[in-house]
Amino acid sequence: MAPDQTKHDEVAQATADTERVMRPQTVPVNIYEASGALVIVAPLPAVQPEDVAIDLWPGRLRICASLRSAGTRDYLVHEWDYGGYEREVDLPGGWGGGVEASLANGQLAVRVLPGTVTERTTLRVDE
């Protein structure tokens, strides 16, 4: 097996092993009302848009980002991982008619539109 393939396989196995036992990291959020939307901003370092999902249901919104990779390193200090993020927030009444999201420079911006959501909706950020 080529050295690059061996390294890739080691990282893939370390990532799968870590995902099985890790607790998602809670991320802080900022929430503010802008014209025509409730905006939720959260730092999500080291993930890509396809790693992120947004769940919207009546009165709640959940941000989830899967683990991007787990290195095969011997850390001296290991306080965070490359993904495995999660956060739920309560939504004020009148918000939930739709949801839009973008991820750039490690920052997720979610726009919750006015209205009412009647059933759980999931949005993948890469869509």
Chart the SSEs and their pairings.
Blueprint lengths: L2 H19 L3 E2 L3 E5 L2 E7 L8 E6 L2 E6 L19 E6 L4 E10 L2 E8 L6 E4 L3
Parallel strand pairs: 1-6
Antiparallel strand pairs: 2-3, 3-8, 4-5, 4-9, 5-6, 7-8
Describe this structure in words.
The chain has one helix at 3-21, and strands spanning 25-26, 30-34, 37-43, 52-57, 60-65, 85-90, 95-104, 107-114, 121-124. The protein is mainly beta and 127 residues long. The longest helix has 19 residues, at 3-21. The radius of gyration is 17 Å and the shape is elongated. The model has no long low-confidence stretch (mean pLDDT 85).
Distance from N terminus to C terminus (CA atoms, Å) equals 36 Å
Poorly predicted spans: none
CATH topology: Immunoglobulin-like
Number of domains: 1
What is shown here, in short?
The protein is mostly beta strands and 127 residues long.
Keywords for this entry:
four-stranded antiparallel beta sheet; 127 residues; 15% helix; five-stranded mixed beta sheet; elongated; Immunoglobulin-like; mainly beta
